[in-house]
Amino acid sequence: MTITRINPDNLHDTPGYHHVTVVAAGRTAYLAGQCPLDASGAVVDGGFDAQVDQVAANAVAALAAVGAGPERVVRTVIYVVSDDGAVLSQVWDRFLASPLAPAFTSASTLLGVARLGFTGQLVELDVTAALG
């Protein structure tokens, strides 16, 4: 399966993601929102960095369960409980430094939100992957 990532010339430069991701028809995996929960179901302590690390680890495990790696991701949406641009950038940069980094070369959206589902949750990640 071929995944084509495109940045049209008439759109702004990006910090690593692509504006458009195209996949020929095939199997697709839609991951539930990946949360910063450890194996016991508890939200991890340690602020944004620790939560990004847990979300990335959980997403890698979920992708592996369907025989995929981060390079098969075609769309991500990152939700961050903050309206501070510096915090949003910190979260983006932490994901780019994680084992999940190749996922963020595809179409990606980063959103600041007021609240997420679990008490103390600061980050959530929505992932779509092309399986072939």
TrEMBL record:
CDD domains given for it?
YjgF_YER057c_UK114_family
Q: Which Pfam families match?
A: Ribonuc_L-PSP
Q: Which SUPFAM superfamilies match?
A: YjgF-like
InterPro entries given for it?
A: RutC-like_sf (IPR035959), YjgF/YER057c/UK114 (IPR006175)
Q: Name one GO molecular function term.
A: deaminase activity
Task: State the name under which the record lists this protein.
Answer: Enamine deaminase RidA
For this record, the Gene Ontology CC terms, alphabetical, are:
cytosol
Record family assignment:
Belongs to the RutC family.
Give the residues annotated as coiled coil: none
Organism's domain of life?
Answer: Bacteria
